[in-house]
């Protein structure tokens, strides 16, 4: 294994968290900030262009946009929130899914090659500033202050002594851990996936340029793994966007539900 690290006096330094701290492009503006703004422009332009001249028999472009909307509306919002209450939240769910998806996909697009959600502040901003206040506000509005606290922390049918243990756990879960884990899932997946891609790509480059002899031939395997991981990462990017929107809808559905 040491031969993979040392070749012709050069030492391979594996990528780490420091590689995600990109220098400013201008002033204090960094690449992830630019990608966030760019993603908003891409999503707006996509849906505006797709809905500008809608037809009964949709074009391929319109069909893609309708499929994304239908997926967010029926497969996420309706199923998690319920057919009675879901319609007002469809734009939010579709927007969350599209926004996280585009920023994830940036990680495998040439030149961009950076998943914005691998910076923990961005998914946390969505979960803590957008989703978390909304679903608790909806719960308090529907059930009242005391009613929502009881609804969220005291499931019916539990023996009274158990509430002394259950209520603190539910408060900790609903009001502290939910927003943290909501953002942490997509961050961890994007960070780990991009780190693995960096490892195989840079490792293959190092073996090719500095390995020499038979060792340089091993770069083929590293590049092959990098290509395979790119396809796997693309699947995970879509899946994590779906999970983020799904959990947002699930939290809203829990807050609005009549039963615990």
End-to-end span in angstroms? 55 Å
Arithmetic mean pLDDT: 87
Number of helices: 9
The oligomeric status of these chains comes to single chain
Beta content = under 5%
Identify low-pLDDT runs: 1-9
Category by helix and strand content: mainly alpha
Q: Largest sheet, order of strands side by side?
A: 1-2
Q: What overall geometry do the principal axes of the alpha carbons give?
A: globular
Task: Describe this protein with a few key phrases.
two-stranded antiparallel sheet; mainly alpha; disordered N terminus; 2% strand; 260 residues
What does this 3D model show about the protein?
This protein is mostly helical and 260 residues long. It has helices at residues 2-5, 31-52, 60-81, 90-105, 121-143, 145-153, 160-210, 214-217, 219-256, and strands at residues 6-7, 10-11. The chain has a two-stranded antiparallel sheet. A hairpin with a 2-residue loop joins strand 1 and strand 2 (10-11). Helix 5 (121-143) crosses helix 6 (145-153). The protein is globular, with a radius of gyration of 23 Å. The termini are far apart.
Short synopsis of the structure:
This protein has nine helices and two strands. It has 260 residues and is an all-alpha fold.
Indicate the topology.
Layout: H1 2-5, E1 6-7, E2 10-11, H2 31-52, H3 60-81, H4 90-105, H5 121-143, H6 145-153, H7 160-210, H8 214-217, H9 219-256
Antiparallel strand pairs: 1-2
Helix pairs in contact: 2-3, 2-4, 3-4, 3-9, 4-9, 5-6, 5-7, 5-9, 7-9
